[in-house]
Specification:
It comes from Paspalum vaginatum (seashore paspalum). The chain is an alpha+beta fold. Helix content is 15%, strand content 34%. It has a single domain, classed as Acid Proteases (Cathepsin D, subunit A, domain 1, Beta Barrel). It binds 2-acetamido-2-deoxy-beta-D-glucopyranose (2 copies). One 2-acetamido-2-deoxy-beta-D-glucopyranose binds next to loops.
């Protein structure tokens, strides 16, 4: 396989190394062709930050039981890094419909609509599975005249020729060409429990996308919405299981079979994170805002204007599982990059666009500086201390880059999934708190 100068080649090498050491017989590599270069992902992340900022700036002030179903107070799904496919997202497998069909979905806290590729979607370019609503006994279309369609479905189309017509959407993920179009219905989702039983969530709002575009959907069958919204999967899960959900992200370069988890319901006391910060929600927006108080590099608080972290001044920060690289608004970006690069000044540099600061780590002599510690301090004294590999990232063998990007200012800063990796994040929707702690995420 041809190695290219992008993240995919790192992933392939990691995979090859893992196979050579015999630790990963189950590892499967997908063809290199659908790989997305780190430059494309970096551009996607910047577009997404611009889109999220635009969306935020426009903000306005009965069920059937199934035999095998078991009452459960909490459920968990494996959640794995999609890096083996060359994408920067985390995937969850979900069973949808009756009889249940399995789909691989991007777990996205920036989404309010869960959708799957439907019959007719994508054609030959869509090798994955497709959902056939007509074959699901539990599928019910949502009419375009319903309040759910008119008030809750984001990007629903205004056309509603007859009141029984299906609710259509044209969902946009970022500025540019990433989105999905289709019709909305409800169906059940099935989650396997230990011991062979299952738990069912009824009446989950589900989009059936007949067309879609964007890199992220090449290797996934759709999106699992973990955003804050009446119709999101996170909300359905949290309503049913104790008002909260959590996820634990394994290292994004971990082997394909090294899964973290997505959990609904209270965490066992021994696992519950203690660091907590208020969850800042905005009306009709799926995003989980958090208040950053400061960023420290090597123990020193950086000089970043307070407006950058102030959501009322078009700044602020969100946690986003659907963004790969952290995007910081210009003043924060400049301060972080200046501090990190000053500390790394002794290491030979290499060019690796779009990153501004990349280092030849193999040529790093003895006595060369280490990666300084970066700490994100949130309101409520919660400190995120990511491992060095989460902000000075491996982009190809022997090459590391400062892995944050510059985002629009004014604009929101987006804490991406690489910065969140190897941590357990709990979104307590009932008490409006985000909790987190370091974890290797395997159970
Ligand atoms: C609404 O318009 C879209 C796009 O023009 C179309 O795909 C969809 O079928 C229409 N929906 C209804 C209910 O007429
Ligand atoms: C890094 O430095 C080593 C040793 O000087 C050299 O062989 C290698 O080609 C360099 N790598 C890159 C990507 O420049």
């Amino acid at each position: 396989m041809a190695l290219r100068g992008n993240l995919l080649s790192v992933l392939l090498l990691h995979a090859v190394a893992a196979m050579a050491s015999g630790e990963s017989a189950r590892l499967e590599l997908v063809p290199a062709a659908p790989g997305v270069s780190v430059a494309e992902r970096a551009r996607d992340d910047r577009h997404r930050q611009a889109y999220i900022s635009t969306r935020l700036a426009s903000r306005p002030g009965g069920s059937r039981r199934v035999a095998a179903e078991a009452p459960a107070s909490a459920v968990s799904l494996p959640m794995s890094s999609g890096a083996y496919t060359g994408t920067g997202q985390y995937f969850v497998n979900l069973l949808v419909g009756t009889p249940a069909q399995e789909f691989t979905l991007v777990a996205d806290t920036g989404s309010d609509l869960t959708w799957v590729k439907c019959q007719g979607a994508g054609g030959a370019s869509s090798p994955g599975r497709v959902f056939r609503p007509a074959n699901s006994k539990s599928w019910a279309p949502v009419p375009c005249s319903s309040d759910t369609c008119k008030l809750d479905v984001p990007f629903s189309l205004a056309n509603c020729s007859s009141s029984a017509s299906p609710c259509s959407y044209d969902y946009r993920y970022k500025e540019g060409a990433t989105g999905a179009r289709g019709v909305v219905g409800t169906d059940s989702a099935t989650i396997a429990l230990p011991g062979g039983k299952v738990s069912k969530l009824q009446d989950v709002v589900l989009g059936c996308s007949s067309t879609h575009d964007g890199q992220s959907f090449r290797s996934a069958d759709g999106v699992l919405s973990l955003g804050n919204s009446k119709i999101s999967f996170a909300a359905s899960g949290a309503r049913r299981f104790g008002g909260s959900f959590s996820y634990c992200l394994v290292d994004h370069l971990a082997r394909r079979d090294a899964a973290g988890y997505l959990h609904f319901g209270p965490l066992p006391v021994s696992q519950r994170p203690t660091a907590q910060t208020p969850m800042l929600l905005s009306a009709q927006m799926p995003f989980y805002g958090v208040k950053v108080d400061a960023i420290h590099v090597a123990g020193k608080a950086l000089d970043i204007p307070a407006e950058v972290w102030d959501a009322t001044k078009n700044g602020g920060a969100i946690l986003d599982s659907g963004t790969t690289l952290t995007v910081l608004a210009t003043p924060a970006y400049k301060a972080v990059v200046a501090a990190l690069s000053t500390h790394l000044a002794g290491v030979p540099t290499v060019d690796f666009p779009p990153f501004e600061h990349c280092y030849n780590w193999t040529a790093r002599g003895p006595g060369a500086p280490d990666i300084p510690k970066l700490v994100v301090q949130f309101a409520g004294s919660a400190r995120l201390e990511p491992p060095a590999k989460s902000y000075v990232i491996d982009v190809k063998p022997g090459v590391k880059c400062i892995g944050v990007q510059e985002g629009e200012w004014p604009g929101v800063s987006v804490i991406g999934n690489i910065l969140q990796q190897e941590h357990l994040w709990e979104f307590d929707l009932k008490n409006m708190l985000v909790r987190f702690k370091e974890s290797i995420c395997t159970r």
